[in-house]
Amino acid sequence: MGEQSLVTQIQRWPDWIRIKTRKHWMLLLGVGVVLSLAIALGAAMRASGFLSTMTWQGWLTIAVTVVAFLLNACTRLSPEIVFLGALATLFVTGVLSQDDALAGFSNAGMVTVGTLYIVVTGMQHTGGLSWISQQVLGRPKGLTRAMVRLMAPIMGMSAFLNNTPVVAMFIPVVSDWARQLRLSPSKLMIPLSYAAIFGGICTLIGTSTNLVVNGLLISETNHPGLKLLDITAVSLPCALAGTIFLIIAHRWLLPDRKPALGDEDDPRQYTLEMVVEPGSPMSNQTIEQAGLRHLPGLYLVEINREGQVIPAVGPKERLREQDQLVFVGAIDSILDVQKLRGLSPATDQVFKLDVPRSERCLVEAVVSNTCHLVGRTIREGQFRSHYNAVVLAVARNGERLSGKMGDIRLQAGDTLLLEAPPSFLDQRRVSRDFYLVSGIPDSEPLRHEKAPLAIAILLVMVILAAFGIMDMLKAAALAAVLMVVTGCCAPNRALRSVEWSVLLVIASALGLGKALEVTGTAGAIASAFVSTAGDNPWLALAAVYGITTILTELITNNAAAALIFPIAIALSESLGVSYMPFIISIMIAASASFSTPIGYQTNLMVYGPGGYKFTDFMRVGIPLNLLFWLITVSIAPIVYPF
After folding, report:
1. Is residue 392 classed as helix, strand or coil in its secondary structure?
2. pTM
């Protein structure tokens, strides 16, 4: 019996191995590349005698960094816990001083990201982001077309604007857009970040790294400095190749972490009635032009026009002012309709609440069998007067409820979508009238009338930063203050919009990078790696690019560039060749960070919204890093000869 069981198990091994290999082959490839680089780096360090001079602080820093990467890649621990733990370890053991350990928390880049969340919230709450989405992204059919429509404008903007605000502005846009297209956000968030990187490397002002390297070039050599497009001849082929690679390989490399919204995702089918406002931009538009045709999980079942019912509404039907539109759908899509400019709830009760609309929220409440309104219509029960809340939609066992909202006769178990002041949650959470009361996040009514003001504030921020009138942090801080002062964003909502977990990861990752610097580990690794190139300038260029791209995944891109710059200059002088191919390669390698989420700020910003794992970036990013490496080393000496 034991022998038979053993034989049976052995017979199963090939299938198990084949299945696992098929599932994780890209991850295995990525790990193989990393191990190969580690072996090569170890050989270089041993040959240079670095291993014998390594201090315990250096060894501990390497060990903590490796453990942090492995915990992110192989466990479900949240990134902020892992990196805060790693930073605490280096601080407690004395590797980092107090100032060095806390430096990341006062870093201008980290604070800029946090400030930009407030700016984006102002854009979001005024409907400005929805307008940008409609104008720039449209409604492509299929993931491939969606990626092209997304990446092209992002690359164009990032070539002349800072990457961080571009990505910060588009994260909520892409999230909503993906839901409307019934695509997983994880299919679009990595392309969003990478497209910003692609565009940023194409001009001198596209990233701060290019400006840092150009400053070092002016101060350390007799070069007058690079012009705006001097880097473009080398970086543009990289950007185009990277875009083509993503468009071709997205089916196999991009994960499907968050399922797109489907028709069966939410069993609650709300019935909602909206009216086309006087002067609405939707007036005289067709259903398709107004964006009411492709909302996922939501159906426009009929239009009530001057007492006449238009059933089975076609896409070419034109809307008129005062049309009453009856929708049936899931809660997420109901929220989308609520945010559309030019539509408002059909009931005038929402204008009679004693709290301004901008300070209200949406609440779901399930009617109990002891509620005094059971068996009565919403109008008869005077729902607004009794509860200081207005019923916007009703869900009942997936049924489509006919008649006007005020004429719906409530039953026990009905789920009501209410517009109410935040105090409703505290007052009615333990009420016998409702089984369950829960708030819906980010459901405040939009302030469409302030959208032009919010867009103007955003443009002022971009212009101030792009023309060097203010640095990015000052421009972002000014824009954030204006968003709050002008009422584009409520103060409490501004604070809730900040993604504190992302900021903690950025600050902690900067601390780890600082440890690699202060212990001398990063510099020694770079020197050891570059020393293997010998007297061949092509190999030396490849080595400089390789160590820069590795370091930029571990420490900040600016720090990696500043660390490698003097090594590259000394190397070019010893070889008797021009330093320009090395300078261009450092610029591209330091910014082209694709393999880890902590290598570049925009990667970290899309990490949470895309629902990614740490290894997702390795699977997509390692082939991209190798592609950029090959193209840059091949083209740079042709454009700027040795």
Report:
1. strand
2. 0.64
